[in-house]
Amino acid sequence: MDVDSPRSDGTLRVLVVEDHADSRELLVDFLEMQGYAVDVALHGLEALARLRAGPRPDVVLLDLMMPRLTGWELMEHVRDEPVLACQQLAVVVVSGAGPSRPLPQGIRAALPKPLDLDALVATLGALQLAPPQA
Questions:
Q1: pLDDT for residue 63
Q2: Closest by alpha carbon to 33, among 115, 106, 120?
Q3: Neighbours of 126 (CB within 10 A)
Q4: What is the CATH number of the domain that holds 38?
Q5: pLDDT reported for residue 131
Q6: What pLDDT shows up at residue 4?
Q7: Quick check: is 51 in a domain?
Q8: Is residue 134 part of a domain?
Q9: What is the mean pLDDT of each run of 10 residues along the chain (134 residues)?
Q10: In a domain, 2, yes or no
């Protein structure tokens, strides 16, 4: 399968990048119930490896404050690596970190923690990333 092609069944791919197990499990369970195919990364370094290896997700839900490689640092890598930069990833920040500095370039939306799941659905819909209707 081409790393940039959609899944053959039309399911949208979401990469959840979250270091807190409870938040990660909630997101994964909810997104799968909504019809998304979900992959996870426990920190930015793991997310970077997954993005490099493919397949490219349709959207990345990204926490900013994580060990090993923060969301800020991950977005710098995405911006600076030509193979990743050309993918034009749809990145949605999901973070409890206040706006201490401007969001990284390439962020399509930002949602605060604790996460409002209705707001997440609305955001994905606004980005035209709603799963196909059954």
A1: 94
A2: 120
A3: 11
A4: 3.40.50.2300
A5: 65
A6: 45
A7: yes
A8: no
A9: 49 94 96 96 96 94 93 92 87 80 81 94 84 56
A10: no
